[in-house]
Amino acid sequence: MLEINETHDINLNSWVSSANEHKDFPIQNLPFAIFRRKNTEQGWRGGVAIGDKILDLALISAANIFTGEAQQAAMAAAQPTLNDLMDLGKQSNSALRRALSKALTNGSALASHLHSMLVDQKDAEYNVPCTVGDFTDFYTSIYHATAVGKLFRPDNPLLPNYKWIPIGYHGRSSSIGVSGQKFPRPTGQIKSPNRTIPEFSPCKRLDYELEMGLFIGKGTKLGEVIHIDNAEDHLFGICLLNDWSARDLQAWEYQPLGPFLAKNFATTISPWIVTTEALAPFRHAFAHPEGDPEPLPYLNSTKNSASGGFNITLDCFLETQKMREEKTPMAALSRSNFKHSYWTAAQMISHHSSNGCAMQAGDLLGTGTQSGPEEQEAGSLLELSKGGKAAITLPNGETRTFLEDGDTVIMRASCAKKGAKTIGFGEVSGTILPSLPQPTSSQ
Questions:
Q1: How would CATH label the architecture of 13-127?
Q2: 120 Cβ contact list (under 8 Å, min separation 6)
């Protein structure tokens, strides 16, 4: 796990003036994205957020400003995806972070040279930050698992394996899109309790899931196992993730093999990846509640117990079509925290590789819905509406049990701690479009 160093100094200020009071992107953060200028034929390239600007890493690389590992990492970050940068590993990534921090700090001799390499964020568009070869979604909030379990198994909500194993399933990487993604309402088989046969129709119980996304950095070979104490050597950084869910499709199809069409239609991630090093001041002690079983040895270590968690506040908002038309503010739905996760990032990575599964740079691990212990900390409408039985009243008088066409879900995340500079993840948003025309018989 990376230690706090000079890049985290709360007294650091940047010559990019907007960074010094920025709620998300002060100089202590420096997250990565893939971007280009809007309305141009410019190629995609890596960038680093600093205040309301983006530092263009393709220009940084071409200028040969840095040396050694920092320059090697800058060259990797200048590519159309961040896969090469991720695969260099934490030492090279850390060298680039230190070089960028020094170059962007007040008084830097490089300030005049770098000024022309800045792009306003409002003038940029973003792409998925890397080629995602594989996407695995976990189920790490015991509060979410319990709340959902109560809807179907009131007397036995939590399955017996939950407290022993980080449960996950393989998702669909081709459906991952960056913030601003718009997608049609999914369609599939639905079996209502009052019907004897299923119907094929648009989803009626569309939901969001408030998650974090973990990007794998340095990859491994088939047959190589990642020890829990080395797991974060393979974690490049973390983003926001909304794993949209068609709850009615899911209820019918998930047994016995788990989610399929209920999950494969869209997953939306924030454009900015906050590196593990940037998150060092916000580590959190990890422990299962008293009375719960200790993790098996391969999922247990002193280091993971001392600081395996992350203290990241998560917020979810809803903006309806009516709100946009009437120019009224979006509605806050919930606030939770990643520190409530029952399993840590290191445990997810270690378990994923425990049978020799090869991990590739750019692989994405979803944490599962991050609900907290209180009802208002629920990370999905399934929980907030108690399975659709209790409609939520929004400030403008509208109600929701599940999402409607035209709804936009916005998620944000931030880290705050006394003695450290507050940093954030930006936001991830996605909008529901009407369903596609249903297929008809050719006969």
A1: Roll (2.30)
A2: 52, 53, 54
Q: Which residue type, as a one-letter code, is found at position 288?
A: H
Question: Rounded to whole angstroms, how far apart are CA atoms 104 and 16?
Answer: 7
Q: Can you state the percent helix, strand and coil of the chain, rounding each to 5?
A: 25, 25, 45
Amino acid of residue 16? V
Candidates 160, 211, 159, 149; CA nearest to 371 is 211
Per-residue pLDDT tens digits for 205-254: 999 999 999 999 999 999 999 999 999 999 999 999 999 999 999 989 98
pLDDT score recorded for residue 156 = 83
**Fold for the domain defined by 135-433:** Fumarylacetoacetate hydrolase; domain 2 (3.90.850)
**Confidence (pTM):** 0.95
Which residues are the active-site residues?
A: 144
Q: Which two tokens stand for residue 167?
A: 């449960």
- Count Cα neighbours of 104 within 13 Å in the Cβ-side half-sphere: 32
Domains of the chain, residue spans: 13-127, 135-433
Asked if residue 85 lies in contact with residue 67, where contact means CB atoms within 8 angstroms, the answer is no
- 391: exposed, middle or buried (Cβ count in 10 Å: 0-12, 13-18, 19+): middle
Residue 345 parent element (H or E)? helix 345-353
Residue 443 scores a pLDDT above 60: no
**Contact present, 45 and 124 (Cβ < 8 Å):** no
- Partnered with residue 206 across adjacent β-strands are 246
Cα separation, 247 vs 258, in Å, equals: 12
